From TrEMBL:
Matching InterPro entries: Papain-like_cys_pep_sf (IPR038765), Peptidase_C19_UCH (IPR001394), Ub_carboxyl-term_hydrolase (IPR050185), USP (IPR028889), Znf_RING/FYVE/PHD (IPR013083), Znf_UBP (IPR001607)
UniProt feature, compositional bias: Basic and acidic residues: 1-13
Domain USP intervals: 170-475
Domain of life: Eukaryota
UniProt keyword annotations, A-Z: Metal-binding, Zinc, Zinc-finger
UniProt protein name: Similar to Saccharomyces cerevisiae YFR005C SAD1 Conserved zinc-finger domain protein involved in pre-mRNA splicing, required for assembly of U4 snRNA into the U4/U6 particle
Organism of origin: Maudiozyma saulgeensis
GO molecular function: cysteine-type deubiquitinase activity; zinc ion binding
């Protein structure tokens, strides 16, 4: 009997030992958890999405430092560091704001304990709060795959008020201290040239932390323009503007009418110098070549980023009070005029069919430069207001080995000039505003972006605006 009793007691003792071990493991796990589930959920409720703005220049609001900046997810202010006695650490104690996001690593931490949510407590979050944390990290630095880019644009909802938008068709804020509309339209223009867009969207943060400052800032703004998880329906170019003003002070001038074409030329050349991979992409897709036949000389091959089209001169005495008074010309006629015998300097220019770019940039010159102004400035009042008529498809005729061939392009961007009168002093020159019109392939609509405002436009009425820069994409045979 005693032997049987011992045998029956042995399994019980083993089970008891296993249960005791499991309890000890759970106890240790509970002790190792830096915060309890209930406390974590209460903290996450303090996140105020309406206060969050990740587009502003990353400067500590306490020390003015630009290094190792964290954003407070409760009040939206920026602070340096998360270690003991750092501004972010002190803010978490003095104001009781404990949740922060790093703008360098995108990690979300709980201060003053410096608990990394992804590393330490992600298993405590439900699906709703996991999505919230991921949305915050994505808003700081969006990440894309080739598949998500291929499917864009698509219907999205900004998370603060639930408003509908299409990624890639969001406005850019207009600075109050500088007239930067001419910069905004060029950023939007390049964001819709697919090879350029893909280069920036697929950029990896880990591999670009030490890259050129211009590349870093444009990468971030491009990623946010195409983000499907925006907190608000516009993106701020503040960091890019600040970088250019500090490092290229001659490019941006306060409260002065500046030329987007000049900025486009500067930016393309600056990007070519900043990154070898991007330079190859730009040359391969956006640069074409011309043959220039000077009198008595052999033909020279001339590379170009854009074709400059000159409008016919208008009468100085003709007032343009309504649309019927303004002269009109077809875009095809402007292009043909450029390649006639009466071209600039009496040189005959000829496009080379095999060297036509995939993306053709056209620049329609409307302003007469004054010797009193810099190259990037102009007088608005004396501009050429001639209307340029164009269709969605552009067919270019070419003479190639005595055989006439045609190449077709489709319009993908239309930058227009929008003059604004000075209401307080009629003697002063007009102010230039700039807008861009883009086709949404999903809805088949044309969308006009005027800084932060987006509106649907009828394509048949686009020609009524003062077209300034166009981008055409070659149609594959």
């Amino acid at each position: 009997m005693t032997q049987k009793r011992r045998l029956s007691e042995e399994p019980r003792s083993i089970k008891q030992q296993q249960q005791q071990q499991q309890q000890e493991i759970k106890k240790k796990q509970k002790q190792s958890i830096p915060i309890q589930r209930e406390d974590l959920q209460s903290l996450l409720k303090t996140i105020n999405r309406k206060k969050l703005d990740f587009d502003s220049e990353k400067i500590c609001s306490a020390s003015l430092s630009k290094l190792d900046i964290y954003g407070c997810l409760v009040c939206g202010k920026y602070f340096r560091g998360c270690k003991e006695r750092s501004p972010a650490f002190l803010h978490s104690i003095s104001d009781g704001h404990r949740l922060f996001v790093s703008f360098e690593s995108t990690r979300v931490v709980i201060l003053p304990d410096e608990i990394d949510i992804d590393v330490n407590v992600i298993h405590l979050l439900d699906d709703v709060n996991k999505k919230l944390i991921n949305d915050i990290k994505y808003s700081v630095y969006p990440v894309y795959s080739p598949d998500t880019i291929r499917k864009s644009p698509y219907r999205c909802f900004e998370s603060t008020q639930g408003q509908l938008y299409y990624n890639g068709f969001v406005g850019l804020n207009k600075s109050t201290s500088n007239n930067i509309a001419y910069i905004n339209v060029i950023i939007q223009l390049l964001a819709h040239v697919d090879p350029i867009r893909d280069f920036f969207l697929l950029a990896d943060k880990k591999n670009h932390l030490n890259d050129n400052g211009l590349i870093k800032n444009i990468t971030l703004i491009m990623k946010k323009i195409w983000s499907p998880h925006l907190f608000k329906l516009n993106v701020g170019p503040d960091e890019l503007i600040s970088y250019i003003m500090v490092n290229h002070s001659n490019v941006i001038k306060a409260n002065i009418n500046c030329d987007p074409q000049m900025f486009l030329n500067w930016l393309i050349n600056a990007l070519c110098q900043s990154d070898k991979r991007l330079r190859k992409i730009l040359i391969k897709t956006c640069q074409g070549k011309l043959k220039a036949f000077a009198k008595g000389n052999k033909a020279n091959i001339v590379p170009f980023w854009n074709l400059t089209l000159t409008l016919p001169e208008i009468s100085m005495f003709k007032e343009s009070k309504n649309i019927d008074d303004i002269e009109q010309i077809k875009l095809e006629d402007l292009i043909m005029a450029k390649f006639s015998l009466d071209s600039i300097n009496n040189d005959k220019l000829q496009l080379i069919k095999d060297n036509l770019p995939q993306y053709l940039f056209l620049y329609i010159r409307r302003f007469n430069k004054s010797k009193k102004l810099s190259d990037s400035e102009f007088y608005v009042r004396n501009r050429n207001q001639t209307i340029v008529n164009f269709d969605e498809i552009l067919t270019l005729p070419f003479s190639n080995d005595d055989k006439i061939s045609k190449i077709r392009y489709k319009l993908i961007s239309n930058v227009v000039h929008d003059p604004e009168k000075n209401l307080y002093d009629i003697e002063k020159d007009y102010t230039s505003n700039w807008k861009i019109q883009l086709p949404n392939e999903q809805t088949k609509d044309w969308v006009e972006i005027n800084n932060t405002k987006t509106t649907i436009k009828n394509f048949n009425l686009l020609f009524l605006d003062e077209t300034y820069i166009q981008v055409w994409e070659k149609i594959k045979d």
